[in-house]
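In response to reviewer comment 3 from the previous cycle, which asked for concrete evidence that the modeling workflow produces usable outputs, we include below a single protein chain processed end to end. The sequence was submitted unchanged, and the resulting C-alpha cells are shown without manual editing.
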Amino acid sequence: MVRKKQLIHKLVNFRMKQGKKTRVRVIFHDTLHRLTRTDRDGIELISDALENVKPVCEVAKVRIAGIIYDVPGVVDRDRQQTLAVRWILDEAIKSKKKSKNSSRLEECLFAQIMDAYRKRGDVRKKREDLHRLASTNRSYAHFRWW
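The workflow returned the following C-alpha cells.
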C-alpha cells in the first residue's frame, strides 16, 4: 500500500507546474478512472506499465584525453522509476500537442499508459533505443568509475 501511495505522489508531483497540484490530481484521477474501466486495477496497471518501460542501463558521456565516449552503466532502481514516469508523461504531453482535435491530457496519458502496458509505443521504443546504444558502446565500459 505504501508503494502505491509513493507511485501516485510521484506521478502527481512530476506533472505539477507552478504549484497547481489540485489540477494535476484531477487529471490523474480521471486517468485512473479510465484505467479502472479495463479488466485490472488502475494502480497495478500503472505499475506494470512502468515495469515494462523502466530502463536497465543507460549511457553517460565521459571525456578522456579529449575524446568523448558514451559509457554504459547500470541504472539505480529509483532512477529507473523516475525515468519511466518522466518518459510516459513527456510522451503524453507531446501527443496532446501533436493531436489536431482537442484531446485532453487524461486521454493521452491513458493511451500512453496502455501502450506501455502492452509493451509498444514511443516510450517502449525510447527504452529499446537506449538499451541498443548501451550494448553498442559496451566496449567502453572500462571507462566507468562511478
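The helical segments are 2-15, 21-36, 42-53, 77-98, 105-117, 122-136. We consider this sufficient to address the reviewer's concern, and the full set will be provided in the supplementary archive.
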